[in-house]
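look at this:
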Amino acid sequence: MRNRNKVRNVLLIAVSMFCVFAGVCAGTPITVTSYTLTPGESGSFNYIDDGGVQLTDGFIGANNYGANLGNGNAYEWVGWAVANPTAVFQFGSPVTVTSVSIGFNRNNSASIHLPDTVTINGTPFSISANAIPDNTRGFLAFAGSWTGSSLTLNLSDTLGDPFGESWIFVDEVQITPEPGTFVLLGAGLALFALRKLR
């Protein structure tokens, strides 16, 4: 009887570990090892990417794009008025991506608009001009299935002003893997724990 209770308790611990691990990791963004990016441009402030980390550093901009959140005015934002930017994100190993979330700012009075097309590894997504409210920042999520050790992101503003009076602002890109990848890993860890405890 004691042995059966011990086995039952071990199984409960293993299942709990699996559920916690899978639940936490399923929504956890992938760690990007590095990325290349079309250089940001300057306007009222410098909307450049200092050190090539700003799109994945976890720092979110404010609704007021020019706010100083501790690193300088508009530091969190990378912006383009003329270029349609491309970013290529590198991962440590091949992975299946099922969601890409991009943090945008929209401020019509400052000529900061959303791109009309987001393309992820060749898959285009059309964006409504009012997908986020005016004078705010917000994430837009794009679902799909892309497998590889890198991911290419293009932002196109074909409706914008070719003379550089229409800006695209991005503060963060979050790339989320296929949940099954982490569920399998969690199950493996749970089974490993079970075997060790037995």
Helices lie at 2-26, 179-197. The longest strand covers residues 86-106.
